[in-house]
Amino acid sequence: MITAQTPQKQLPSSAKKTALSVNINKVALLRNTRHLDIPSVTRAAELCLLAGAQGITVHPRPDERHIRADDVYELAALMKDWPHCEFNIEGNPFHNLMDFERNLSARGLPLHQCTFVPDSESQFTSDHGWTFPDDAERLRPLIEQVHSRGVRVSLFMDPIPEAMAMAKAVGADRVEFYTESYARAWSGKEKHKALEQFSQAARAAHAIDLGVNAGHDLNRDNLTEFLRAVPGVLEVSIGHALIADALELGYAATVKDYLRCIDEAFPVA
Predict the structure, then answer these.
(1) Active-site annotation holder among 66, 112, 147, 216
(2) Which helix (H) or strand (E) holds 20?
(3) Residue 240 a catalytic site member
(4) pLDDT in tens, 123-136
(5) May I ask the CATH architecture of the domain 15-264?
């Protein structure tokens, strides 16, 4: 468990390649259709880590439609065996996210990043970022609480350049760009416009030392182009497409192919 009273110092965005964090919610969703505890969520995470993934992400919702409370603690225990990898929990801090953050700390289990997402309890999937200045004052004390345990905070955000300074002002260490608009535009005429919007937002974030993550509907087709166009993405969190690919290719081959996509965005000089 990180015990420092300030979040880990992140490297400059130009200093390292984008990390891959695998969101395993959909493994839990499949498991929950029966009472046999298969497929195993922890085994899925372990296989992804063995294949080279640099992190595991979960988004436990209050209705436990996929990730359950026990999964969070079992995965955190697993991550103790992977000290060079990160455990990221996404969720709404006004629902159940802060309970997990407190309990993991109390149990001495690792947590490296909390990603605050403004989803409703009944929402099908995450579909928008935080709004500033509307959400600023209620987020600030929760960010301070997470920081007090030495955990990084990322805010799920739409790619709005002028909102980056406001995210930084409330204490966020990073933003996670909601990338569905890019994925939706990828095969059409609006792709370059979408990429430019994300690129401008990333530059605005970097200008104030705000780290950039990205996630939502990124896949093996569109990932490389996104990372080439959007500077300094520190981490991509990918779940739905990656787990769907793993049904055909297996976890190891799938993770390695996503890592290949990332490598192709960072050509060797």
Answers:
(1) 216
(2) strand 19-23
(3) no
(4) 555 557 789 888 99
(5) Alpha-Beta Barrel (3.20)
